[in-house]
Amino acid sequence: MSDNPGPIVTGPLGGIPGGAAREPSRGRRATEIADLVRLQLGLPDAAVTVSQLACREPGCPPVETVIAVLATPSRRWTIHRPLAEIDDALVSGLLTHDPHGATHV
């Protein structure tokens, strides 16, 4: 058993109809991304959230994925794609180019 807290997912996976209960692969992918974030940033014990959300802002795609590190300092990245469309290379590149967060892609 790992001490890794895993991803923290709020609501029915960010309010997207169907949520994690209907799409268990989304929960697995969120866990994989959270593990990758911890590994790449060297934060093995940090709480990492990976949430797919409905975006309601003007001009925003209908779905976005938010990755957040809940540590000091906290960090956040927003990817304007559903969780299923985010591969490891995208996450690694994002963390390499902006390890401090606040990027929107």
N-to-C series of helices and strands? EHHEEEHE
User: Overall 3D geometry?
Assistant: globular
Cα-to-Cα separation, first versus last residue: 34 Å
Q: What's the helical proportion of residues? A: 25-40%
* Secondary structure: number of strands: 5
Q: What count of structural domains?
A: 1
Strand content is 15-25%
Computed CA radius of gyration, to the nearest angstrom: 13 Å
| Assembly state (oligomeric) | single chain
Derived structural class: alpha/beta
Give a description of the structure.
- The chain has helices at 19-22, 24-41, 88-97; strands at residues 7-8, 47-54, 63-70, 75-79, 103-104.
- The model is unreliable at 1-21 (pLDDT under 50).
- It starts with 6 loop residues before the first strand and ends with a strand.
- 30% of the residues lie in helices and 24% in strands.
- It has 105 residues and is α/β, with parallel strands linked by helices.
- It has a five-stranded mixed beta sheet with strand order 1-2-3-4-5.
- It is globular, with a radius of gyration of 13 Å.
- The protein contains three helices and five strands; from the N terminus they run βααβββαβ.
- It has one domain.
Q: Could you provide a short overview of the structure?
A:
The protein has 105 residues and is of the alpha/beta class. The chain has helices at residues 19-22, 24-41, 88-97; strands spanning 7-8, 47-54, 63-70, 75-79, 103-104. The N and C termini lie far apart (34 Å).
